[in-house]
Design brief:
By secondary structure, the protein is α/β, with parallel strands linked by helices. The protein contains 9 helices and 8 strands. The chain starts with a helix and ends with a helix. One of its GO terms (molecular function) is zinc ion binding.
Length: about 230
C-alpha cells in the first residue's frame, strides 16, 4: 500500500481502527548484517504508510537460530531500539507491537515479549492462537488464558490491558508448533474461552481475526463475545 492510499483510508474509514502487519521477511537476530538492515527498513517503510491512517504496527521480531534466548533477546532489543530512534527522528507516531509467535524456533514467547515491551516502553500483539500452537495445545482453557492476561497486567500495568491488540484464528500445529491458520470451527483452539477470559478481565482494545474465512469468523467472534 502506498501512502496516498493510506490517507484515503483514513478519510473514508473514520470509524475504523487501522493497523498494519509488517513483512514476514524480518529477522532482527539474523546472522548477516544486511538481513538485519533490510528488516529494519521494512518496518520503517510500513511505519511511514501506517502513520497516515493508524497506529499499531505488528511484526514478528525474528528467530533464535543457534543463539541462546538471552543473546537473541539482547540483539533483538537493541535493533528495536534502533527502529524506535528512527521513528522518533522521522516524527512517525506509531506503536511497535512485537507479536507472540507460534513456533518454538521463533523469538516471541509470552514472557520475553512482555519483558521486551516493558523495557522498551512499547506494547505487544498477543496472538492467543500462536500461544496455543507454540504450547502444542497445552494452553487452551479459560484458566490458562486468564493467567496470560494477569501476566500482561503484572508486567505492563493497566495500560497493557486497556490497550490490547489481539490476533485470533483457528490454527493447526505439529511438533514444531504452528503449521497453518484454519477456520475457527475446523480447529481445536478454544477461542470461546479466550473471549470469556477477555470479558471477565474487562480487557479492551482491538481483536484482529486472521482466519482464512475472514469475514465469517470475524462475525462469529463478535457474536460469541456479545452473547457472553
Amino acid at each position: 500500500m502506498k501512502e496516498d492510499y493510506a490517507k484515503k483510508l483514513k478519510e473514508y474509514g473514520k470509524d475504523i481502527i487501522f493497523s498494519a502487519h509488517a513483512s514476514h521477511y524480518i529477522n532482527l537476530n539474523a546472522n548477516e548484517e544486511e538481513k538485519i538492515e533490510n528488516s529494519i527498513r521494512r518496518i520503517i517503510k510500513t511505519a511511514k504508510v501506517l502513520n497516515n491512517c493508524g497506529k499499531n504496527l505488528v511484526f514478528h521480531p525474528g528467530y533464535y537460530l543457534k543463539r541462546s534466548k538471552e543473546v537473541t533477546y539482547n540483539r533483538i532489543k537493541s535493533n528495536i531500539q534502533r527502529i524506535l530512534d528512527k521513528l522518533e527522528s522521522l516524527n512517525l507516531n506509531v506503536m511497535l507491537r512485537p507479536e507472540t509467535t507460534g513456533k518454538p524456533s521463533q523469538f516471541g514467547d509470552i514472557d520475553e515479549t512482555l519483558k521486551l515491551c516493558f523495557e522498551l516502553d512499547i506494547l505487544p500483539c498477543i496472538d492467543f492462537s500462536h500461544i496455543y500452537a507454540r504450547s502444542r495445545g497445552v494452553i487452551n482453557d479459560y484458566n490458562s488464558f486468564y493467567k496470560i492476561l494477569e501476566k500482561v497486567e503484572d508486567v505492563l500495568g493497566k495500560n497493557g490491558i486497556k490497550d490490547m491488540h489481539i490476533h485470533l484464528s483457528g490454527i493447526e500445529y505439529g511438533k514444531g508448533g504452528e503449521r497453518r491458520h484454519l477456520p475457527l470451527k475446523e480447529s481445536k483452539f478454544n477461542y470461546k474461552d479466550v473471549l470469556k477470559a477477555l470479558k471477565d478481565f474487562n480487557a479492551s482494545g482491538t481483536v484482529i481475526c486472521e482466519s482464512p474465512l475472514l469475514e465469517e469468523d470475524a462475525v462469529l467472534l463478535m457474536r460469541c463475545y456479545n452473547e457472553l
